[in-house]
Design brief:
single chain; mainly beta; six-stranded mixed beta sheet; 1 helix; 5% helix; 46% strand
Length: 206
């Protein structure tokens, strides 16, 4: 099955000395992402809310290419692998509305849109939760299908965030997720796709 590809910009982590209080036009978001199974590029997609434009950005864990560096050290290694993400965003309201994964020409994404809304406030941080991708299918390319859970792991995640980014220890942190929340299947399952690369046939002149 062919599905339209999702395009957008990756949101990087901030530097270790980042201090939200120094910027009146932006704030921090904190989340964790993990996966069990083979390697792939695992993403959650967000956009400014209520902006209805197709512009999207994403947070990512793993790697979408088959060949990747073996030297990355993950923050979490129990029951899979994962990373903590601390990113800087402009002040405003946002919505996470889908997830996706890709491994070579194979991809999968949430079957239905969902709404996880959060606000970024100047000089503050917002914890938005933990996303876990659990492999349900794969091949030599990596993970080709998964289910995604969403839960409150704030006790673990915020302790690690303050250790890796010491300036967060004195930063007010808003919880944008209900305490103790656990969603077993985010996005009502998945849609799978195979998007082979185009084949170019040279035209020989006479």
């Amino acid at each position: 099955m062919l599905l339209p590809l999702l395009f957008g910009c990756a949101t990087p982590n901030v530097d270790a000395d980042y201090r939200p209080a120094n910027d009146a036009s932006s704030g921090a978001v904190i989340l964790s992402m993990a996966f069990s199974g083979a390697l792939a590029g695992y993403r959650v997609w967000y956009h400014p809310f209520p902006d209805a434009s197709p512009k999207r950005s994403f947070f990512e864990v793993g790697e979408s290419q088959v060949l990747t560096s073996p030297f990355h050290t993950y923050d979490f290694t129990a029951n899979g692998k994962g990373d903590l993400i601390v990113a800087k965003l402009p002040v405003g309201d946002y919505e996470i509305d889908s997830w996706s994964l890709s491994a070579g020409a194979y991809s999968s994404r949430s079957a239905e849109p969902f709404q996880i809304r959060f606000s970024v406030r100047a000089g503050r941080a917002a914890y938005i939760g933990s996303f876990r991708f659990m492999q349900t299918g794969g091949n030599f390319m990596g993970t080709t299908s998964a289910v995604v859970s969403y839960s409150d792991m704030s006790e673990r995640d915020l302790a690690l965030a303050k250790k890796k980014w010491p300036n967060l220890a004195g930063t007010p942190i808003d919880l944008a997720i209900e305490a103790g929340l656990k969603v077993a299947k985010l996005g009502a399952g998945e849609k799978r796709a195979f998007n082979p690369p185009p084949i170019y046939v040279p035209v020989l002149g006479k």
